[in-house]
Amino acid sequence: MSIPQEARLALLGWSFRGAGISVRERVAFTAAEIREALTHLLERGVISEGVIVSTCHRSEIYSLAADEGARSQLTRFVSEWRGLDQAELEGACFYRAGEDAARHLFRVAAGLDSLALGESEVLGQVRQALTLARESGSTRAVMHRLFDSAVAAGKRVRAETEIARHPLSVSSIGFELAMKVFGDLSRRNLLVIGAGESGSLFARHAVEAGVRNPVIVNRTAARAEELAASLKGRAAAWEALAGEIPLADVVVSATASPEPLVSRAAVEAAMRERRGRPMLFLDLAVPRDIAPDVSQVYNVYSYSIDDLEEVAKENCARRAREVPIAERIVEEELGNYLAWLGNLSVVPTVVEWRRRFEEMRDLELERAPAAERERLGRLLDAFSARLLHEPMKRLKEEDDPARKLDRVEAIRHLFNLDRK
Length: 420
Known about the structure:
By secondary structure, this protein is an alpha/beta fold. 56% of the residues lie in helices and 11% in strands. The protein has 17 helices and ten strands. The chain has helices spanning 21-27, 31-43, 70-82, 86-92, 99-109, 121-136, 141-160, 170-182, 197-208, 221-231, 241-244, 264-274, 305-321, 323-342, 346-367, 373-397, 401-414, and strands at 9-15, 49-54, 58-64, 94-97, 190-193, 215-217, 234-236, 250-253, 279-283, 300-303. Strands 7-6-5-8-9-10 form a six-stranded parallel β-sheet. The longest helix is centred in the C-terminal third of the chain and has 25 residues, at 373-397.
């Protein structure tokens, strides 16, 4: 698919694939910085349109520029903006142009270029990038359509494949297991042992699913109280752990304890107190917090981090099997976008515009008396030529590529040149 010369679509980026964390941290943009950067790039004339996608794993500048020097100008801009060595930035960046730049964005939105295959959050980040660019006034026809089409591709991939349906983190997998055991978790009691990242992540998943008043136990009481407050839960003293276990339906443990914190004897005692009601233990710690023989207690479900990581590997394989389908969807949506973009060439549009006037002329001549058609035809041809001369001249002479493409798109829309 040919792209019009006016549409110099380009991408300059730094991602986890080629740039280390030390570089990515320094080229990352906040929302306010994205607005400011796009405003500066427009004012300096470096770009005609632009969108910046910035996440913890990537910072990418998509642009429509008037000349081929945008790459070095953008790198120089980021170097000055961040006070970084330009040579270091150039050594860590990647560059795409035309169809390759568009394809990269579509794959990003579909979760095919993520650190975790099928990542869901990136679609929202792509959508947010377009919103920020609109607020900055840095998007017009090409970037609007590019990002809208990429988001549509991402939505299709998630709706038509299972690439994002199988969790990869052990916390998310543990949460899914809890729902399989108990169904609705909103009426279940949750006990989290340890207030670190893994336990906190599980607790937040559970609260989002409707779990109320989760109980947090941690060696450092202040940390337990802080996490409990953020979750609208309750902090319990470390010494009260044995008394909290019988009250919980789900127990998640993720501490750095060198020895198990929960023994089989403690669980058997808890089950007697619970009168046999089922319990689920998720051990996210290495070494184990939950004694291995806890799983032998009747009506107790116990999973170690090894069990959960095995599920994670299988889920990763399931996602990978969906990649060919996702790639086909990306290519379909990309093809639609490139077809639209290809129609924005000035010369073919001018030719079709003239042809459209000729069609309208012929329709009018069919209604005229046969004896008058030749004279009226000459009159209408002269009128059409005079009417089209000035707008065609202005269209061809427009220096700003974004404005030129906007006008081509408007002409094609107003005169229905893309009709089937």
